[in-house]
Amino acid sequence: MLDLPPRWLPSFLEKHNDPTSSDLFPMSSAWRRRLFGLLSAALLGGATMITLTGTGTTIFGSGAASAFGTAAMVRIGLVLGSIWLAWDSLQRPARWFPPGIAVAGMVGIVIIAAQPRLALAVVPLIGVLVFAGSIARAFRR
What we know:
Shape: flat
Strand content: under 5%
Helix content: 55-70%
Largest sheet: none
Number of strands: 0
Oligomer: single chain
Number of helices: 7
Order of helices and strands: HHHHHHH
Distance between the termini: 55 Å
Radius of gyration: 23 Å
């Protein structure tokens, strides 16, 4: 039996019809970065236009909802913009970063979310772990 790709597959995928291949979408990183940049610009531009023209109450319904919606657009736009700026460094792991610290950081975030007063103990503890991990890695080399 002949294993032909379906007709709806684009031509560049016909060459890469192997589901175990990691190179199925060779341009995925570039278009994702552009998408983050475009979404960031759209959200920040939209928030600017809503603020300058005063159409927030028409779009969102009330003054409080307008302020909330515009602030949310600015915050999300800024986060997407920072991801757009940092995209290249996000593609490769930081070699200086000790491997277990990401897990400790996530555990610390969960602890702080559950009990914010524990931030006074968790943040210095994670700092000590980062420092100790860096020292240990320096001696291993």
